[in-house]
């Protein structure tokens, strides 16, 4: 229909206005930050991570053992049981490093742009609230402060900052591991999860792990992936029990500083107000070509190597050699990880002696980058340029192979033609040796040779968000 008439927004049907509000509020990637004594009952949700550190009562002296009594006993935050034992406060007083994690006061906040329509008018605010937007991520000492839609938004968690571990103190608690374990509430997870509220954790549907793509490499590289790389993921899913989509992040906003000038990035990230969505982060699948940018591009776009495909992309190449060029390295790895996570969950449930084990979902996996719009545009251009360059080389190599057949080149003539092509396109020393004198099978040169002479056209990825 020709736009001959302008309809005032308030005159539109309420259903249409609601759809417009939804389309004008894109999903976000929300990263929460904890700013830097009373025990809260929600600590029992993390009990399977800390209960093995609690000393047994036959070793822990109490006031009662010295004859002291009290007519008004303390009210425990939960009913002690084998699965969630009592945490003795006098024991915590001996280990302030542990007490800090149990009793610290803090709140969570996020720098993610607030959906503007939450503060535009009463109707738009009610529409978004009815669609699921709410203040979320309270802590044990503070209320929720971050607007989040558990059905649409992605929660991004990152690694815990490494503290100075120069101390040689190897003190233990009754023979347990050293007390500097910052993951006492997070279990085997590498990420600080102990300050999240259990109710919020159970509502998260889309969870992204900063630099979690290293798990892809470790799973394919480790001889015992379930025991090594998957323990962290499994421990995380024990807490986020209803996650439907687990996103393993390789590159994050700020990593592509060579492709996008720092002053441009700074200008883009300089928000005009708290509701400015101009620099809203984008998600894109990690593509096969990402591991080849450093090899085929004279000026790689990223300051970080692509780790998901292995060193020099060798794990991805090995996978295609073993399963065919059409095999999807990432999809096959995701399926294998899901299977291993299911086995790990079954093993944990079968060996757990308590009665509170709640099976968690085995989510769908994706390996992604989370980038600013400027970085995503720069990466897309670099991907297309490198992919086209590889396709051109593959076409040129194909014509040389056909020439060999058509003109029946002798072995000597063929070696001359082949070597001329290789010296032209990868003049590096393609006879590089390992330290033991053997040929370096997966050097950059060997990777170039395989992708051009035997490999498929590399995929360039899709935009998810």
From TrEMBL:
Residues 6-155 form the 2EXR domain. Pfam families: 2EXR. It comes from the Eukaryota. InterPro entries: 2EXR. This is 2EXR domain-containing protein.
């Amino acid at each position: 229909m020709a736009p001959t008439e302008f309809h005032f927004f308030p005159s539109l049907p309420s259903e249409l206005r609601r759809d417009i509000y939804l389309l004008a509020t894109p999903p976000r990637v929300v990263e929460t930050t904890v700013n830097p004594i009373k025990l809260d009952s929600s600590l029992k949700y993390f009990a399977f991570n800390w209960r093995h550190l609690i000393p047994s009562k036959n070793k822990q002296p109490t006031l009662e053992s010295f004859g002291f009594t009290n007519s008004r006993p303390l009210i425990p935050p939960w009913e002690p049981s084998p699965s969630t034992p009592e945490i003795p406060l006098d024991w915590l007083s001996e280990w302030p490093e542990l007490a800090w994690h149990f009793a610290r006061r803090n709140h969570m906040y996020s720098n993610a742009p607030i959906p503007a329509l939450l503060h535009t008018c009463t109707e738009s605010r009610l529409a978004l609230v009815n669609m699921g937007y709410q203040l979320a991520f309270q802590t044990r000492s503070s209320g929720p402060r971050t607007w989040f839609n558990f059905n649409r938004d992605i929660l991004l968690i990152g690694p815990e900052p490494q503290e100075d571990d120069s101390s040689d103190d190897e003190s233990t608690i009754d023979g347990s591991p050293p007390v500097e374990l910052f993951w006492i509430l997070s279990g085997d997870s590498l990420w600080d999860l102990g300050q999240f509220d259990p109710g919020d954790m159970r509502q998260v549907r889309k969870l992204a792990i900063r630099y979690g793509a290293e798990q892809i490499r470790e799973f394919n590289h480790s001889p015992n992936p379930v025991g090594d790389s998957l323990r962290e993921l499994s421990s995380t899913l024990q807490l986020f029990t209803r996650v439907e989509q687990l996103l393993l992040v390789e590159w994050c906003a700020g990593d592509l500083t060579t492709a996008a000038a720092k002053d441009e990035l700074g200008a883009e990230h300089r928000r005009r107000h708290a509701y400015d969505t101009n620099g809203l982060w984008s998600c894109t699948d990690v593509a096969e070509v990402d591991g080849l940018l450093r090899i085929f591009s004279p000026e790689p776009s990223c300051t970080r190597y692509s780790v998901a495909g292995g060193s020099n992309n060798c794990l991805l190449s090995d996978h295609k050699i073993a399963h065919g060029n059409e095999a999807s390295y990432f999809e096959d790895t995701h399926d294998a990880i899901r299977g291993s996570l299911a086995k790990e969950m079954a093993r944990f449930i079968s060996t757990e002696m308590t009665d509170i084990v709640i099976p968690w979902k085995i989510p769908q996996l994706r390996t992604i980058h989370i980038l600013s719009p400027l970085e995503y545009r720069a990466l897309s251009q670099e991907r297309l340029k490198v992919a086209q360059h590889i396709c051109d080389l593959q076409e040129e190599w194909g014509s040389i192979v056909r020439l060999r057949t058509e003109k029946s080149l002798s072995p000597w003539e063929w070696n001359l033609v082949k070597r001329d092509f290789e010296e032209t396109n990868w003049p590096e020393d393609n006879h590089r040796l390992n330290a033991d004198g053997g040929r370096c099978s997966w050097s950059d040169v060997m990777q170039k040779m395989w992708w051009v002479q035997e490999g498929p056209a590399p995929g360039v990825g899709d935009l998810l968000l």
